[in-house]
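User: Is it possible to get a 3D structure for a protein together with its bound compound? The compound here is zinc ion. I've pasted both below.
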Amino acid sequence: MENQHGPDFPNGEYQGKPFSNSTPIYPSGASFPTVPEEEAGITYSDPVDNARVPLIKLEDNLRTHLSPNFTVGSFVGKVGRDYHYARISVDLVRTIQAIQERAQAPLFIVSGYRPPAVNELIKGADQSPHIAGRAADFKVSGIEPLEVAALALDEMGPHVGIGLGAGTIHIELREDLKSWVYTGAKLSHEEFSEWVQERTQRASL
Ligand SMILES: [Zn+2]
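Assistant: Yes, that's possible. Here is the predicted structure of the complex:
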């Protein structure tokens, strides 16, 4: 399930579309003109997905809702103060909103889109999908990260990269299941992987 632009997204919304030209339409109906790569420059380059998720302008749009509970600002956080553009996958917004609805307590995105320099500064992985706009680290108020991971898996099935942290979880849109843990997580890598496998297999029965 690979095309020349990398793995397909689970919902396939960008399939067959020349994604650098496609205007994203978010669950709220919001849509923004996309910014050409040449205009944004290397600061916003996406070596991870080759600019599959297009850049949108942040200015004046930070408070614009992408879905009932989340704005552009929710997905960029502090990046919105210092940067002009961002990549935010429509599928990611839809997924986060769906997890929010399952959680029934406030979901807070700690880190969404990261320009390459920000990713480097916070020591993110080299090929981090945060750079590509298809990953989010988040927590749900009053709910343990492992329980939040359960909600994410119930929503996403095996089409997820999922990382368990001490206070947050990381999710990324991907075709095949992958799981890992961060320092301070309640389970070891092995324990979490096994738990993830069981949970996704049970869901697909
Ligand atoms: Zn992350």
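The helical segments are 37-40, 72-76, 79-82, 90-103, 116-121, 145-156, 189-204. The longest strand covers residues 135-140.
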